[in-house]
Specification:
The chain is mainly β and 124 residues long. It is built from one helix and seven strands, in the order ββαβββββ. The strands form two sheets. Strands 2-1-5-3-4 form a five-stranded mixed sheet, covered by helices on one side. Strand 3 and strand 4 form a beta hairpin. The longest helix has 10 residues. The N and C termini lie far apart (52 Å). 12% of the residues are buried.
Length: 124
């Protein structure tokens, strides 16, 4: 593979720490980068992505689409000579299947006042 087809990318995490730099082909997709991030995620972080879909990559102020290639996401201002491309990583964990809903509780028996009580219940 020619040297000009390779791009060094560093991933900046939510806490300011970095992963990489790693060397990728310009033909690598954003989805491939996300899968690498999930598999190499540093131990001890409070937020941990479980799947690639929980990750958003941002470069030059744009959220990168999974089907785009690294070559399509290069700097719009020209090439970075000898530089490392930095992509910001945002983790958005999937919503759980269990939702918490606040519903009014039935009035107490016998009704001694006109006030309502709230209860919290889980819907699965």
């Amino acid at each position: 593979m020619p040297e000009e087809d390779l791009v060094d990318i560093k991933f900046r995490l939510f806490d300011g720490s970095d992963m990489g730099p790693f060397r990728y082909s310009s033909a690598s997709t954003i989805e491939m980068l996300k899968e690498r991030i999930v598999s190499d995620w540093p131990k001890g972080k409070t937020v941990v992505p479980k799947v690639a879909n929980e990750i958003k990559l941002i470069s030059f102020g744009k959220i990168l689409e999974n089907n785009k290639t690294v070559g399509q996401c290069k700097a719009p201002f020209g090439e970075l000579t000898g530089g490392v491309m930095v992509m910001h990583v945002v983790v958005q964990p999937s919503l759980t299947k269990t939702k918490t809903v606040i519903q009014p509780a039935p009035p107490p028996e016998p009704p001694s006042s006109s006030s309502w009580y709230l209860s919290i219940s889980k819907i699965e």
